[in-house]
Amino acid sequence: MKLLHTSDWHLGRTLHGADLTAAQEHFFEFLLATVKTEKIDLVLISGDIYDRAVPPVESVNLLESILSKLTQLCYVVITAGNHDSLTRLGFAWNQFGPRLQIIARDEQIGRPIIVKDRSCKQPLWLFGLPYLDPDTWRYRLAAPWDASSQAPLVTIDLASPDLTTSTVNSSRLSSKVEDQVSILPSSQTEEPHELDTTADDLLPSLPRNPQGVMSGALKRIRNWIQANYQTAAKPTVIVMAHAFVTGGEVSDSERDITVGGVATIPSQLFLDYGFTPEAAADFHRQCDHEAYFALGHLHRPQTVAGKDNLKYSGSPLPFSFSEAGYEKTITVVELDAGQIKTKDLVVPPWRRLVRLKGSIDEVIAQAQDPQIAQSFAEITITDNARPEALYARLRAAFPYLLVYVHQPTNPVSLPGPEKISLKEADIAQVIADFLEQVGGDKPSEQELQVVNEIVEEVRLNRESA
Prior knowledge:
Blueprint: E1 2-6, E2 14-15, E3 18-19, H1 21-37, E4 42-46, H2 57-70, E5 75-79, H3 86-89, E6 100-103, E7 113-116, E8 124-129, H4 134-140, E9 154-157, E10 168-170, H5 177-182, H6 197-200, H7 210-228, E11 236-242, H8 267-271, H9 277-286, E12 290-296, E13 302-304, E14 307-312, E15 329-336, E16 339-346, E17 353-358, H10 360-365, H11 370-373, E18 376-381, H12 390-397, E19 401-406, H13 427-439, H14 445-464
Parallel strand pairs: 1-4, 4-5, 5-6, 7-9, 8-11, 11-12, 12-14, 17-18, 18-19
Antiparallel strand pairs: 1-15, 2-3, 7-8, 9-10, 13-14, 15-16
Helix pairs in contact: 1-2, 13-14
């Protein structure tokens, strides 16, 4: 069985104003080709399909197009991220039938998608966790939950030769958008929600931070595993989650999800399913299984805490210049005889990002390399004096320049204010001194001539008034 782990598509996002639609389409071509060549059975998308809760129509159409093509080739499982709205994701739920599963509702957390491989020997238990906003989820996940009475969300049999006729048991969402909204957590809808704190204070609740609500969600998962585990058919467990795990390396493009003064979740919390170390050891002895945590939210591909099975696929596109020089990847996860093997495939860049720094001459010289010249560029110019026509010269050399800044290597420090008599001062000389202090060099003869002409014109206008 082969799965493909990806996340953080952020459809609708721009890069310093540059439209990334063509880059997204370029990635989708690579994704479809990979699904075919690698013979992928399931694509897992761990949150942040969209960049904002109300995406532009173009982004919705783009998602509909890729899901239509993907679901002809394999099954697709999506968990909602902190940027997503389920009323926008839910449009596709009924359109693509059981080939598409979207996980974001309270009643889905803790219940797996069961996938039977072609040998029918070792099932996959796939649990999905959306982004868990503490203010929304700390009461829901603290409520009593009986794992023994919870059926799987869906059972998929990969032995079926045709996706359209695969044996799938699933309860579907209502096709009405208003019905979808009514069963979603409030933070997943577009309307702001005022919590009734008077009523909530009477309810059991988890700590108001990401670790607290994640512990509650993982407790459901471990309880379901304990209630349904059978040694004869030892499962492989995959948990999809959209969260900031301690030890993960951030870029400049993730949105801050700090709540209650806490942003991150300890990596060991995932590995132990929220148990204490002692209880976790007993759990793993009784319910021995291999596990993989398919994470989303951080945009750099990485494993966390040195654990190969605790992994961020990263975003398929760079969304800030802090990601310049980093390869973007998707992760292929292969399950074979109870073993989990992963490999990263590099996403071919549509347009690279470069960060350049140096004097104007040094920077422009680098444009002789066509690959650099055709990249999205962030440029820092270090000349002490601001070069003439700086933007025009840079834009001519780098047509995809997005950010530029003048940052002198030895900036001129301005002296403190000096009291002078304007009646006695040579105004042209005052202006010339100012230009030298700010620009770092004395004005040229041509510049001084312009200053003198302006000063003389102002003097004549005053005398004739």
